[in-house]
Amino acid sequence: MKTKMLVTTLILAASTSAFAQGFQGTENNASGFNGPTQGITTIQQVFDAGTFSDDMPVTLTGNIKSSLGGEMYIFTDSTGEITIEIDNDKWMNQSATPENKVQIVGEIDKDISGTKIDVDVLRVM
């Protein structure tokens, strides 16, 4: 019985440590990888993706140009600008100005009112 408790305790300690390391990694970089990204990486590619791109994942790097109020913002990169939605909990105690480069990870959201990006992860660079 003591052996089972010891083994269980060791497994729990190891898994807790691994979880904490993974969580720390996601705070700094959502994917745990810091390198090139494939897929949609510019605003122009978002608009070129066509009508079937709703919910398609994107990773964009640029600047938050201005606030539209609430959780809506204008995001720009070298190819254009697009409306993005950043829920308050996605800021993760970060702040940005129009001069700060940011990386956003999210999905394309297309509806009758237009195209925007729903942001899942925000990283101020």
TrEMBL record:
Xref: Pfam families: BOF (PF04076)
InterPro entries: BOBF_sf (IPR036700), CarO-like (IPR005220)
Signal peptide: 1-20
Protein name from the UniProt record: NirD/YgiW/YdeI family stress tolerance protein
Organism superkingdom: Bacteria
Signal as UniProt keyword: yes
Gene3D superfamilies referenced in this protein's UniProt entry, alphabetically: Bacterial OB-fold
Record's keyword terms, sorted: Signal
